[in-house]
Design brief:
Layout: H1 5-36, H2 44-59, H3 61-68, H4 70-88, H5 93-121, H6 127-156, H7 158-175, H8 177-189, H9 198-207, H10 210-239, H11 245-272, H12 276-295, H13 303-317, H14 321-331, H15 337-364, H16 368-388
Helix pairs in contact: 1-4, 1-5, 1-6, 1-7, 1-10, 2-5, 2-15, 3-4, 3-5, 3-8, 3-15, 4-5, 4-7, 4-8, 5-15, 6-7, 6-11, 6-14, 9-15, 10-11, 10-12, 10-15, 10-16, 11-13, 12-13, 12-14, 12-16, 14-15, 15-16
Amino acid sequence: MNVWLLPLIAMAAVQAFVGLCLFAIPVIAPQAAPDLGVDPGLLGLYTAVVFTAAIPASLGAGGLIARWGAIRTCQACLLAAAGAALLSASALPIAFLLGALALGFAFGPETPASTQLLSRLTPPEKRPLVFSLRQTGNQFGGMAAGFAVPLLVLSLGWQASLMIVAGATAVLALVLEPLARRHDGDDRAAPRPAGRGTLKRALDLVAGEPALRRLAMAVCAFSAMQLCLNGFLVSFAVTGLGWSLPLAGTALAVAQGAGLVGRVGWGLVATRWATPRVILAGLGVAMSVAAALVAIANPGWPVPAFLAVCAAFGLSASGWNGLFVAEVARLAPSGRAGEATGGMLAIAYAGLVAGPALFSLLVAGGFGYSAGYLAAAAAALVGAAALVVPLPPAPTPDLSTAAEDTPCVR
């Protein structure tokens, strides 16, 4: 058996359960909002708080991986996510806020940790597909939230539903213990980044490489779009289209299922026929068109037509992540894939903070969900342009310092 197969399954499961803890919030929003005394649209600010906390957590991921190992870092993320779900289940506004902060500290390190582990175990030629498969965990988490959580809410209530999600997430942390004993030694044996400079080192790593910089611009916009899809689709379908909660949850599950197909499919395309950068630019255009179609949807649309748009939305706006992680792993210096991913994710999380926050403000300000989706569509087009606009030419080297290494634009 390939040495990377079991770690791949484990890392996909980690992402699925951390994602489930996040995706459960917009699904329970129509029921939870009255108990919390807020408008359902304002629960998008929960997502903004999550990813605000995730920014420093992702930047510090390199230090955590070096200290604990990749899998123990993932175990800590799972326990933090479970704690976040329990705090949110209390129905106390302050506990809901603390839960968002805890979930942010769970989200920050889990992708850098899995990238560090899988980049060490996977041959370079298999990385686009392997990382795309790993990123399908997000879709499995979203599908579980879309299909299972509404049924739990209707039968047990939203608070009990979050408690069940928390318990399942904590169990997975225990299941990973044998893998941690087997694989974490190599990460702890690597040189540790300087503690006080860890955050700056991660950002400097991204800023120092032109190809990483423009990838960061694109992923910031794409991340904002993805969270606008995941965070508001259920509430839009319920309040804007008049759908029932289970039917609205089905729309989210369809989008997530299409994203799952997209992550695997785009990974295969990148392995055989096209470069990840070109595919990512095309997906940026596609997700912009899909968001515009959602923006013009109305209660008169047939259910299959809207579900088809949701599938196209998911295929593009949730299908790009594996290619992004594979590109970061390719461009990162040897042994620093986790640190580079942390730096890139900090920038991506800035988009995850700004996108849902702006969306929520547009909804609360009376402009409606359509305005939010159109704003996200415009941002995605800018991100796609960042990937295809030619880089400025490299500066002419100074012959007096020809012995020095010159940076290579990749």
